[in-house]
Specification:
Blueprint: E1 2-4, E2 13-14, H1 16-42, E3 52-54, E4 69-71, H2 77-97, H3 104-117, H4 124-135, H5 143-148, H6 151-157, H7 161-181, H8 190-222, E5 225-227
Antiparallel strand pairs: 1-5, 2-5, 3-4
């Protein structure tokens, strides 16, 4: 049973804003891993010829720089793709339904390392490292954040974690679709599209971090959820 707890500094409570932020990040990049795997399978039962690969082969590429770099320890595109899609699905399920568990952050990290090793993408490394760091705070009492964030600032920031999370999520999803399709409204030059994609990724990372800090403020102010 999960019940509300008015005091977020009690050890063992689940900080609901942080939980939501980490779950959202995990779902997004689990989907990203599935997308990588899909395009890897399209390259068929062929050798990867190395650890570093292009998830999207030339035959399926939709714009000049739309190759989606990845790393794999499996020397076959078809098997790599199946593995990436399978692990990506597990990441989505774990992120959506199990991030409140006691050892969830360790499993979260292990799944993303596995996803990276089987062709789930290179760019996700920064995000899942940040996401894992955030996930370690899901069940923490947030005493350090209480000291760092003054009460007035906490009250203001506690109202912003959802808008920050929405902006971060939209930015990352936009960057993911640009990476695959190269679609940026009003722009067709691939040398311009690339920095737009990088900017969207950077913006997404920034707003996920802002959402996390604001989420800490929210969880301190509103309290967590106790697993009982």
């Amino acid at each position: 049973m999960i019940r509300e707890n008015p005091e977020s500094t009690i050890p063992g409570t689940v900080n609901r804003a942080i939980h939501t932020i980490v779950s959202t990040l995990g779902i997004i990049f689990g989907i990203g891993g599935i997308a990588h795997g899909f395009f890897e399978t399209l390259q068929g039962n062929t050798a990867t010829n190395g650890f570093f690969i292009e998830a999207i082969g030339e035959a399926d590429r939709m714009w000049l720089h739309g190759n989606e770099p990845a790393f794999t320890i499996i020397p076959n595109f078809l098997i790599t793709g199946i593995a990436a899609m399978s692990v990506g699905v597990i990441v989505v399920i774990w992120s959506a339904g199990f991030m409140h568990k006691k050892h969830a952050s360790s499993i979260f990290l292990a799944l993303f390392i596995l996803l990276f090793l089987v062709g789930g993408g290179v760019a996700q490394v920064i995000f899942f490292t940040v996401g894992w760091a955030m996930s370690t705070q899901i069940r923490k009492p947030l005493r350090w954040w209480r000291r760092v964030l003054p009460a007035g600032m906490r009250r203001l920031m506690s109202k912003l974690w959802r808008p920050f999370l929405i902006v971060g999520s939209v930015s990352v999803f936009f960057a993911l679709q640009v990476a695959i399709f190269g679609f940026v409204p009003g722009i067709s030059d691939p040398d311009v599209i690339s920095p737009v994609m990088v900017s969207a990724v950077s913006l997404g990372l920034l707003f996920f971090i802002l959402a996390f800090v604001s989420g800490c403020a929210y969880d301190i102010e509103k309290g967590g959820i106790t697993n009982g």
